[in-house]
Amino acid sequence: MNTTMRNRTLALAALLVLSGTTQVAFAQGWPAKPVRWIVPFAAGGPADVIARVVGPKLSERLGQPVIIDNRVGGNSNIGHEAAARSAPDGYTMLYVVPNIVTNPSLFRNMVDPLKELAPLAQMTVQSYALVANPAFGPKTVGEIIAAARAKPGSITCASGGGLMTFGCLWLPTITKTDMVHVQYKGNGPALTDLLGGQVNILFDLYNTSLPQIRAGKIRPIALTRPSRGLPLPDVPVMAETLPGFILVGWHGVMLPVGVPRTIVDRLNHALGEALADRDVTKRVTDGYSEIAHTSPEDFGDILKQDFEKYARIVKDAGIKPE
């Protein structure tokens, strides 16, 4: 090696060492100011409520305020973009729900969650319920499939947005049947029409359905979770009839790409402690969700799997991005 090349190599090595030392020093001084938590939903909604319950507990463990920043609009893309374009310094967090992985399949110019953001942790999980009007004849998933095959187009499947929409898209494609999908702007109107008999079946939020199920006003067909469980242990899950048919909602946190690993680990640990707080756990379980804190790697696997699953459902349903 000649002298010039040797000097360049030594200079590069020194630069890398200096960069690493600077990153470690920066991470050791973190957090030195408030942390911003971008919530891409309106104040008062489910995500905002959980963020405002978890935020103060997280603040206690970080020793700095956690400030909720509601960035609404663009099918959540405004908030997603704001986080993706933020400095990777550990002072910006993004609250995410499954639309972070479904939006790219439904809309153009969405943030790519696998490339433009980095996973921090999953926080909670929640399943959904397939419910029916009591007057609707079929009582099981198998009977619904048989009825749809016997009379194509005779069954109306309602949804109020989010992953419930994917339920109504997936059910006819996986069973190769013809059902009429009725899309509502929210679960409230969809449930009202189900109660009134305007639609036959509905993929609904579990916590919205449960009081109506207990009152006998709607009939549970199946849950979308991987296996049976409380508080309705006798209600089957979709996967018992249709293997792989699992719809699980979750809430989680992502970060700008490039946050130092030391900060990621400290933030993940603090978030886990905040979620384990008794008050936080009670608020989450009162809404029929479950605490499900994960590592960044495990949440990354969930994001990738769901991204691919919902993209396949959209493609099979013949839906083109808007």
Question: Can you put this structure into words, describing what you see?
Answer:
The protein is 47% helix and 19% strand. With 322 residues, the chain is of the alpha/beta class. It folds into two domains: 31-122 and 248-316, D-Maltodextrin-Binding Protein, domain 2, CATH 3.40.190; 127-241, D-Maltodextrin-Binding Protein, domain 2 (3-Layer(aba) Sandwich). Strands 1, 2, 3, 4, 5, 6, 7, 8, 9 and 10 form a ten-stranded mixed beta sheet that branches. β5, α6 (163-175) and β6 form a beta-alpha-beta unit. α2 packs across α10, α2 (46-62) runs antiparallel to α11 (278-286) and α4 packs parallel to α12 (296-316).
Overall number of domains: 2
Looking at this structure, what is the CATH superfamily of the largest domain? Bordetella uptake gene, domain 1
Helical content (DSSP H or I, runs of 4+):
40-55%
Distance between the termini: 57 Å
- Poorly predicted residue ranges: 13-22
Shape: globular
Topology order in helix (H) and strand (E) letters? HEHEHEHEHEHEHEHEHEHHEH
SS strand fraction: 15-25%
Sheet with the most strands, sense and barrel status: 10 strands, mixed
CATH class type of the largest domain: Alpha Beta
Q: Treating each run of at least 4 consecutive H or I residues as one helix, how many helices?
A: 12
Rg (CA only)? 23 Å
